[in-house]
Amino acid sequence: MNYFAQLLKEWRYAIENEARITHRPPLLLTAAVYYSADFLVYGDRRSYPAAAIKNYMDWVNVMCYDYHGSWNTSATGAHAALFDPNTNLSSIYGLKSWIRAGVPGNKIVMGLPLYGKSWKLKDPKLHGVGAPAVGVGPGDDGVLLYSEVVEFNKKNDATIAYDVNTVSTYSYVGSLWVGYDDALSTTVKVGFAQALGLRGYFFWAISYDTEWKVTAQASRAWIQD
């Protein structure tokens, strides 16, 4: 991470130098980063160089997703949970960790997923977030683009539910379960991003939407608030 801080410093110097030579606006310096400013790697605690990010970068895109997936098939999960009552695997924890580290909100952009994660339920009668599972569900290694989730729900007449505790949506039919974000959960998350004073939000990826259902609603929510 010390080398990363030095790299950011050198990049910023190069960008400003180029702007002076060319008389053009300086290039933007951004990065996609982990959901939390500090984390464990092979048992060692690491932290992003918050001071260097604050001083040399225009903003960071915080990837607030992939908290759960095919690497854990024993239970369903909200893979982009805004809150998690049991662990630190949540967007609110991650975003606040960046602010605590010293990166100002106007240099933080919240990442939102336009895809879902699927599981096979152990018992179809138990279908909430965290319900026992026995494997991945439909999709590529248990991943469905949002457009595919909409198609899955319609084709199978799936039951759609909203989980208040994690601010996420899920659908299920029989033993198949899909967790994702829709227009409602995304709108709530956009509101929290504004409440934290963040620079904005981004989607991974905008092409996964269906008829701009989620992305257009997010834009309206940000403008209205």
From TrEMBL:
<dbReference type="InterPro" id="IPR011583">
    <property type="entry name" value="Chitinase_II/V-like_cat"/>
</dbReference>
<dbReference type="GO" id="GO:0005576">
    <property type="term" value="C:extracellular region"/>
</dbReference>
<keyword id="KW-0326">Glycosidase</keyword>
<keyword id="KW-0732">Signal</keyword>
<dbReference type="GO" id="GO:0006032">
    <property type="term" value="P:chitin catabolic process"/>
</dbReference>
<dbReference type="InterPro" id="IPR050314">
    <property type="entry name" value="Glycosyl_Hydrlase_18"/>
</dbReference>
<dbReference type="Pfam" id="PF00704">
    <property type="entry name" value="Glyco_hydro_18"/>
</dbReference>
<dbReference type="InterPro" id="IPR017853">
    <property type="entry name" value="GH"/>
</dbReference>
<dbReference type="GO" id="GO:0008061">
    <property type="term" value="F:chitin binding"/>
</dbReference>
<keyword id="KW-0378">Hydrolase</keyword>
<dbReference type="GO" id="GO:0004568">
    <property type="term" value="F:chitinase activity"/>
</dbReference>
<dbReference type="InterPro" id="IPR001223">
    <property type="entry name" value="Glyco_hydro18_cat"/>
</dbReference>
<comment type="similarity">
    <text>Belongs to the glycosyl hydrolase 18 family. Chitinase class V subfamily.</text>
</comment>
<protein>
    <recommendedName>
        <fullName>GH18 domain-containing protein</fullName>
    </recommendedName>
</protein>
<dbReference type="GO" id="GO:0005975">
    <property type="term" value="P:carbohydrate metabolic process"/>
</dbReference>
<feature type="domain" description="GH18">
    <location>
        <begin position="1"/>
        <end position="225"/>
    </location>
</feature>
<dbReference type="InterPro" id="IPR029070">
    <property type="entry name" value="Chitinase_insertion_sf"/>
</dbReference>
<keyword id="KW-0325">Glycoprotein</keyword>
